[in-house]
Specification:
It is built from four helices and two strands; from the N terminus they run H-H-E-E-H-H. The chain is mainly α. It has one domain. A hairpin with a 2-residue loop joins strand 1 and strand 2.
Length: about 70
């Protein structure tokens, strides 16, 4: 719920293109009324997801070590 409120807040109050987040920029630039530019939307979603997935995979061993460190007794 918090994420949706942040999206609406940014959509309503951020007017400068330089200050828009990726989710707001993609939404405002690639959706025009009832027309969705699906190819561009999917390409933008993939470009945004790739760095997140790479960072997650790079630090996965640290995440798992941190999660299991608290579970070890003794």
């Amino acid at each position: 719920a918090l994420t949706m409120h942040e999206f609406v807040y940014a959509l309503a109050f951020v007017t400068s293109s330089a200050q828009k987040t990726v989710s707001i920029g993609v939404t405002t630039e690639l959706i025009r009324g009832d027309v969705y530019f699906w190819q561009s939307l999917m390409a933008a979603a993939a470009l945004v997801a790739i760095p997140i997935a790479l960072l997650y995979n790079a630090f996965l061993d640290r995440f798992i070590a941190g999660f299991t460190m608290g579970a070890v007794k003794g």
